[in-house]
Amino acid sequence: MARLTANGLQLEYETLGDPTASPLLLIMGLGAQLITWDDAFCQALVDRGFYVIRYDNRDSGLSEKMEAAGRADVMAAYRGEGTAAYTLDDLADDAVGVLDALHIPAAHIVGASMGGFIAQLVAINHPDRTLSLTSIMSGPGGEDEVAPTPEAAVVLMRVPGPSREEVIASGLESRRVLGGVNNPFDEEVERRKIERAFDRSYYPDGFGRQFVAILKAKSRIPALRKLKVPTLVVHGIDDPLVPVENGRLVAAAVPGAKLLELDGTGHNIPPQHWARVADAIAETARRASPVSR
Description:
By secondary structure, the chain is an alpha/beta fold. The chain has one domain (2-147, 205-286): Rossmann fold. The chain has 11 helices and 8 strands. It has an 8-stranded mixed sheet with strand order 1-2-4-3-5-6-7-8, with helices on both faces. Helix 3 packs across helix 4 and helix 6 crosses helix 7. The protein is globular and about 50 Å long. The protein starts with a strand and ends in a 7-residue tail after the last helix. The model has no long low-confidence stretch (mean pLDDT 96).
């Protein structure tokens, strides 16, 4: 992994595959790190002819932390008060800054959860940099967003204890809830992922600032209706955090968008669906107009 300067910030990134292949930018979600994109899923994308770029958003992982902004007041944001340290549009500009730093004129943009919000805004604000859009377990934002289930809402607001083990235990319970009712859950696999992320960079203040950016965002439905890039929407049928109705709203808004709903899936991309999702992303990319590099 390495660092680059994007939108005036130092962001950690990693590339996989042949640099001459079609570029694909992965954008991860709230408080998550680039390693949250499973290595095997990334390899599936490489195997389908992509040059894969994944990076840590500002305020997460090993990327620059916005410490001068101070701790976010999430409850004030829920009440419609206060201001955000930055916006989702700023995070979309960061994504484009990653492409700039790597001298990539345009890429296939793939985002998950908050990363899907950001990916949508890359396509909306920077259509010339977007070959195709894939929005995974995401929604339209603002007043059009369908709210989480009560159980998932509790996960968002839970504050774990200070110790490493307490954070890991809280993370396990969160993943169990967000995976959806009666869906497969491998506790040992999930524990190893949480441990890896904690040891790489545990930074709850960044989670709070990113969360406020989400809460302050307006609906993207009007802008999504104007998109002209090939678009894929992927969503778990049992997603309790961003219910599937959100994905359906996004797919209905974007002209010509394809909707892929995954059974046995909550707010995650289970291994049994990696090949299917990678195939769908590749098929969407084939509908895009090529851009010379």
